[in-house]
TrEMBL record:
The lineage of its organism: Eukaryota, Metazoa, Ecdysozoa, Arthropoda, Hexapoda. Keywords: Glycoprotein, Glycosidase, Hydrolase, Signal. GO terms for molecular function: beta-glucosidase activity. Transmembrane segments: none annotated. It comes from Orchesella cincta. Its EC number is 3.2.1.21. Residues 1-20 form the signal peptide. Belongs to the glycosyl hydrolase 1 family. This is beta-glucosidase. Pfam families: Glyco_hydro_1. SUPFAM superfamilies: (Trans)glycosidases.
């Protein structure tokens, strides 16, 4: 155990003892004046138009079209919300809700059909130009994610994120995006939730490309981190001076709470869980290397299993330097919390490597998603952990939201309650704890294709009728709630 690890552990003990898990003390106050509000979406989840106007196939096209569908309702993003044709309606919804910015992602294979810069698809460029120009004409700032899970299929053919050659392809793709759109786009996110890309795509196999392996997630993470660093350094070198924008990454993390906060072994296990989840990607970007506890445990377990080398690759000095400090801001996607107990495990791979077991309390309110329980105080705790671990970086909440089903329709009171309680905890993190949070992004603008869950789980503030060829959008109760929250920029005290 490194000195740094013990120190962070001690800080956490203190935090857990002093901060009560009680959010009934609602804070009536306002966000800072320059605080910004937005909605997020992702290309594959909303665009549709999977095979038109020169777009190449991506790994989600292939995954959803398999004979035995890995998607719970057998659906795909072939049409989704048809935002490729209805983007002006989306802009109208954004404008009506009064957002400051819109976070959306570019489809790599719509711009570069085989993933490489050999062929540029002009009709893809045209689509994003029209979207960006419509946003700006309506006073909405574009925030662009380069990669939200839809890898060009041709690159998967040579190993995708597990082949180091992907790093150069990603840099070339980033150069294209900065060159064509950077005159108007000033907020860039290189990658969305690399944890999910690598663990769900290459470890558990529930996301494209559907691989199950104890080794691939670590290799994927290694190349994805180098890809992030390359895209960040490219902007810093060739674009920052002329375009004046910012580049960051979006990492997902729940909060990991010790089952028994008074038991030091539980506290240490919970710290390990958050280091494996968030630290896996953030430590290289903030400190130039993986968390020491990952190095120690994974090296030890790999050796015990008789592997030739550790499952966890090492950065050489060049990549450590490229990664170290490669951020202008940190993006956080947060949804829920888990309880953690220590457990000595021998199952090879990401879960077993941590020597923990996690679960969720049966008392926490549910959503339509099995993994998403409503735990508003966990949001404040992960923001404080980030502040304490990385020196209070500029933090943008790039996703936060709640799922329900067809049954709720537009009467989504569960989503209203979720947004109220989570954003109030964010306000406490800013006002009471000094966390440096500057933007908040609600997931999502509209119901959309929820990956392996198809259309069975809805996250939108606008209802989309997926049986209607016109994909009509209807505001839900939560849209009205968020519109008021954005306009008030906080929570006005109740009238006496
Ligand atoms: C939560 O806080 C409120 C007000 O601060 C207090 O009245 C209530 O007893 C607390 N509840 C718990 C479970 O600690
Ligand atoms: C493609 O990327 C390479 C760098 O890997 C660069 O040398 C080349 O000029 C790029 N080609 C185009 C058409 O942009
Ligand atoms: C990695 O990709 C390159 C092409 O970019 C290919 O030549 C090579 O065979 C690939 N390696 C593996 C292990 O698939
Ligand atoms: C990362 O950068 C910081 C600040 O510049 C420096 O103190 C630290 O030594 C660097 N870490 C590595 C591994 O080079
Ligand atoms: C794990 O193993 C260590 C070393 O054998 C032991 O001290 C510890 O109590 C074990 N922990 C659990 C939770 O079983």
């Amino acid at each position: 155990m490194s000195p740094k690890f013990s120190m962070v552990g001690l800080v956490l003990v203190a935090l857990s003892l002093t901060s009560a898990q009680n959010d009934s003390d609602f804070l009536y106050d306002y966000f800072p004046e320059d605080f910004e509000w937005g909605f997020a979406t992702a290309s594959y989840q909303i665009e549709g138009a999977w095979n038109v106007d020169g777009k190449g196939q991506n790994i989600w096209d292939e995954f959803t079209h398999r004979n035995v569908s890995p998607i719970v309702d057998g659906s795909s993003g072939d049409v989704a919300c048809d935002s490729y044709n209805k983007y002006l309606e989306d802009v109208e919804l954004l404008k009506n809700t009064g957002v400051n910015f819109y976070r959306f992602s570019l489809s790599w294979s719509r711009l570069l059909p085989d993933g490489t810069n050999r062929t540029v698809n002009q009709r893809g460029i045209d689509y994003y130009n029209k979207l960006i120009n419509a946003l700006i004409a309506n006073g909405i700032e574009p925030m662009v994610t380069l990669y939200h899970w839809d890898l060009p299929l041709a690159l998967q053919g040579v190993g995708g994120w597990t082949n180091e050659t992907v790093v150069q392809h990603f840099e070339n793709y980033a150069r294209l995006a900065y060159s064509y759109f950077g005159d108007r786009v000033k907020q860039w996110i290189t990658l969305n939730e690399p944890f999910v890309v690598c663990q769900l795509g290459h470890g558990d196999g529930v996301h494209a490309p559907g691989h199950t392996s104890p080794v691939e997630p670590y290799l994927c993470a290694h190349n994805i981190l180098k890809s992030h660093a390359s895209a960040y350094r490219l902007y810093e070198r060739d674009f920052k001076e002329s375009q004046g924008g910012q580049v960051g990454v979006t990492l997902d993390s729940g909060w990991y709470e010790p089952e028994d906060p008074n038991n030091p072994d539980h506290v240490e296990a919970a710290e390990r869980a958050v280091l494996f989840k968030h630290g896996w990607y953030a430590f290289p970007i903030f400190f130039g290397d993986y968390p020491p506890v990952m190095r120690q445990l994974i090296d030890q377990k790999s050796e015990a299993e008789g592997l030739q080398e550790s499952r966890l690759p090492e950065f050489d000095n060049y990549w450590s330097q490229q990664l170290n400090g490669s951020y202008d801001f940190l993006g956080l996607n947060h949804y829920t919390t888990e309880l953690v107990v220590p457990e000595n495990r021998t199952d090879p791979g990401y879960s077993g490597d941590q020597n923990t077991r996690t679960y969720q309390s049966a008392e926490w309110p549910e959503s339509a998603s099995s993994w998403l329980k409503v735990v508003p105080w966990g949001f404040r705790k992960i923001m404080n952990w980030i502040k304490n671990t990385y020196g209070n970086p500029t933090l943008y909440v790039t996703e936060n939201g709640f799922s329900d089903t067809d049954a709720e329709g537009v009467n989504d009171q569960g989503r209203v309650d979720y947004y109220r309680d989570y954003t109030n905890n964010m306000l406490k993190a800013i006002k009471l704890d000094g966390c440096n949070i500057k933007k908040y992004t609600a997931w999502s603008l509209i119901d959309n294709f929820e990956w392996a869950r198809g259309y069975t789980e809805r996250f939108g503030a606008h209802f989309v009728d997926f049986n209607d060829p016109a994909r009509m959008r209807t505001p839900k109760r939560s849209q009205g709630y968020l519109k008021q929250l954005f306009a008030d920029n906080g929570f006005p005290p109740p009238k006496q």
